[in-house]
Write a structure and sequence with these properties.
Layout: E1 2-10, E2 13-21, E3 34-46, E4 49-56, E5 60-63, E6 67-74, E7 77-84, E8 94-99, H1 107-111, E9 118-122, E10 139-145, H2 150-164, E11 173-180, H3 189-198, E12 202-208, E13 220-221, H4 224-234, E14 242-249, H5 250-262, E15 270-276
Bound molecules: flavin-adenine dinucleotide (FAD).
Amino acid sequence: MQFIRISTFVSGGFRVDNLYLPQAKDMSTSTDNFYRARVVDRADLAADLWTVRIAPEGPFSFVAGQYATLGVENLGKRVERAYSIVSSPYEPELEFFIELVSDGELTPLLHQLRHGNELTMRRAIKGRFTLDLQSGRKRHLMLATVTGVAPYVSFVRTLYRDWKAGQFPADIELFLLHAASRSWELGYREELQKIASEVPWLQYVPTVSRPWEDPAWQGETGRIEDLLRKYADMWECEPGETTAYLCGHALMIESAAGILKRRGFPKDTMLQELYWVPPKQQGKALPS
Ligand SMILES: Cc1cc2nc3c(=O)[nH]c(=O)nc-3n(C[C@H](O)[C@H](O)[C@H](O)COP(=O)(O)OP(=O)(O)OC[C@H]3O[C@@H](n4cnc5c(N)ncnc54)[C@H](O)[C@@H]3O)c2cc1C
């Protein structure tokens, strides 16, 4: 299989089209809205948390921050859900960071997939949760719970490659606050720390909200809601020159958006990617 890549600057970020030139024997690409895709790599972070790389059977293109719709055929029915893409558009495969919902419809099926197993992926990759390069705001404050870091890893991988190639798109800085209950759930922590130590445009703070279950953890503790004011001050993320991104757990998004609103962030400067909504969100305590 041979790929050619075309890099295009588009509104909202860079898009790289992975256009693959099929050989005669590869011409089995689906004709409908779906691709078959094969699992080519997998790493388990915890019993209910894993990363997976898939190779779709045909060409795809997307902007960092968008999501793909993955599916598994079960009992004659295709079960599908949205998953933010972790990988950069420059990469030839797609990577995801997934949490198992034990009573969920799709994640128990996805969790069974191993190297070589197949799933489906919709050809159309969608989403508006992309890096804001149009507004002129220089600061980008990114908040994530656990798997909500996925679109930010895609931003960072893409920008890192551009930066190394001397093609950093604009005068921007990224500030990332990533929360999980325990440190081993902070997927991509080492990668993000390494890049943050190397480049002038990324600050990364991982935080753990249940340090009593992770006594070896030496880093920041508390939830996003507890730390947001401190880091917004420290990083000088003022409304007017900052775009905020909130991704993951619905209650974190609601609380953090409230804090930012009270600091003067207009609604249209806060992008939100809500992964799921608890059935009875009202009146529920925040998860620790
Ligand atoms: C744009 C977008 C991007 C997304 N990206 C990701 C991603 O990168 N990684 C990822 O893991 N998920 C992501 N999600 C969530 C994903 O689409 C599914 O909703 C999730 O994987 C659960 O699917 P399921 O079929 O197993 O559970 P469902 O059958 O859909 O849900 C069963 C029950 O579990 C609840 N539930 C759903 N998710 C969770 C959860 N995480 N924890 C606890 N309860 C839950 C539901 O409210 C429901 O009551 C994303 C969602 C959207 C809309």
